[in-house]
Amino acid sequence: MRILVTFALENEFAPWRSMRKFESARLGDADVHLAEFGGAELTVALTGVGARRAAATASETINRENGSFDCCISSGLAGGLRDNYRIGEVLAARRVFSEAPPTDGSSQLVESSGALVSFAADCGATVADQFCSADHIVSSADEKELLGRDSGAVEMESFEILRESQAAGVPAIAIRALSDTSAENLPIDMSRVFSERGQVSIPRVIGQVALNPQSLPGLIRLGKNSGIAAQSLARFLDIYVATLASQALRLETKSSSVAV
Prior knowledge:
By secondary structure, the protein is an alpha/beta fold. It is 39% helix and 25% strand.
């Protein structure tokens, strides 16, 4: 079974990469990592932060493979929007809402595959009715409270990844582990810490801390919680992709019997 898994950031993928023998490669303009285990042929693509990069990487990866993936998992970390969620909890979304209307006038909602959601629940994920793919980094608890009226978690990439996957006829799902809770403000302006490739720049992080020294304890806490979430996500994905591979013949049948 051929599975595409996307992460925005290298640190989101790092714990899983350390668990398995992934080989680095290039697929067009995309950085990818390849591995085989449990009957699954994995391609992991790092998109960088944001919808534009996510759409470009997903399109490049899927189209270069001629839509031959059996499924796609949009993965990584997210902010929790409900007060009953905990750090490190893995959520699977039934659908994803885009905060920014698509430029082609299409729907702001995209559905995950019902079968993939069902198997995620079987593997221990908490099923959320909706994720919000925001068009900016959501930093404040007040904004999280507003988004939490309709969504369970906020991130920035899943809408475009699911949309590109479905356009190529590839079933897809959004799965995220929570690195911060609904009551937390992010300690620094995270929009200023990413490189041109959409990855975290340590010098830029240091620069933000220098401008706001009192943010350091909160930044350390966020780093610790992000590590917990990434480890939790790695353990889940390791079980999940093996389960999908072992149940590949049941996916189509289960998809037709599960309401999303």
